[in-house]
Amino acid sequence: MNDWLPKSVLCLKSYTKRMFVGDLLAGITVGLVALPLAMAFAIASGVPPQTGLYCAIVAGFTISALGGSSTQIGGPTGAFVIVVYGIVAKHGVDGLFMCTLLAGVLLLILGVTGLGTAVKFIPRPVVVGFTNGIAVIIASTQIKDFFGLKIDKVPGEFAARILAYAHNFSSFSPLETSMGVGALVVIILFMLFVKRVPGYIVALFVGTAAVVIFKLPVETIGTRFGGIPSGLPKLTIPHFRADLLRPLISPAITVAMLGAIESLMSAVVSDRMSGNKHNPNVELVGQGVANILSPLFGGLPATGAIARTATNIRSGAKTPVAGMVHALTLLAIIVFAAPLARFIPLSVLAAILLVVSYNMGEWREIPELFKQSRFEIAAWLVTFLLTVFADLTVAVEAGMILAALVFIRKVTQTTTVSEVTAEYIHEGHVHILQHKEIPGYISIFRIHGPFLFGATDKIDTIVSRLPDLPPIVILRLRNMTAIDSTGLQALENLADRVHESGRQLILCGAREQPLLRMRETEFHEHVGEENICRSVADALERAKILFPEGATQGKGGTNWGRRSTDLAPSNAASAAAPSTKER
To answer: Is residue 568 situated within a structural domain?
Structure first.
């Protein structure tokens, strides 16, 4: 039964006053951070700023109350900006609310049926491709407000938008440009030197104060939208239009998939930072309910927000109570301070979104992708270009088709037909485990089969046992037939986690394709060249060098808990049980 309970309920068993104080302070902090972001995402999506705030309040509270992550913060994010903008442009606000409701129902179904884990079958190059593309498009939509350009209507297509900026750049406002640049500098300086104070908040308050004190003639939320309504969000049933149901199916699937991917990625980040473990299916149930409720109160689609989640944890959050406090903080702001929002300059919000778009772009992944096969590079490039120049739905579909073809190609390449010769038998002796003594200070795990996207989470078998493992962990790759960029990233993360725990990781027996990929991506930087061994025999010798004191511990090695040979083999990441036919 506990498998389906939200984290907010489970945490009540051990909740303390000290934890509440930490959650309260973290929730207020992240609520202030969410204030400019929620408004900026709404404006970039082509809807009034209160739409983003209502989403952050309603969906943010619901995701924390019903979700499967202890410290995740939910609300509007940059991932939805271009999708929402396109839906509003084609089908109006009613179409957006209907689409969000449909996406919520789909997310709920994914969670209840346990299909939420299906999002892991989206490979890393595709995720990076559309993340890069979304970041570029968000940044491009902010140029008008950042420079104060005088353009009546900004084109929806990327190429046309850039041409419109070029033709009208002479109309830029020096004052608004100065405010945008100033806000940008403040945010970057605080990110570099005053990390505990969110630069977004400082830039927002300083920019707004400057407008109020000096009565600056710049475009603000008040001049464009007339301000933000005070009071509680009102429950309103969206107008249902049957004629929009069919054309909204594809965008709804896109919103649901984006919501699932973003929320589960954010939950993984939350787990790594907090040391907790999220429940993916319960998380998607919470996301589904949140996306059903958000449009009923005039809100945007919602998902897990990685940056706000990280801020939440750094500020001391321990449980979902912090996320609920974050939502209540925003509610208090619009109830008691909404009139002040009309003075917020749009150039400052544009600067905030430029920083957000850069941070969400995952640009550091691109050099790593260029070390992969040309097929994975093609999947990334096609997804990126289609996201920017076509449509996000088309981009993800095309990227998935390419990824499926790459997957098929990699799997077929693992099939070989060869003769068993005396030389083959002789060379195999150093790889087999029979008659080899495994000291107690070593645990051996193996990966059996292709280690490609969709299977990489099985390596959690090792991560979950790290606290009980001995000083040396050997990962046997003799039966790993192929690896892709997602698999390599999983091995890199494993190596980092093993080293953070004070242990050493040795890899051995890699076949031709995995070994070639490791060399191309400079994987040795994560474990050390000398810790990538040709065979398990070499790995055992290397372990003696890394842990010479192990020889004095005796053969039992019981000080380090269960031996790896106690584990039953699984399909992908399993223990190296010394069976009579192990090769």
So the answer is: yes
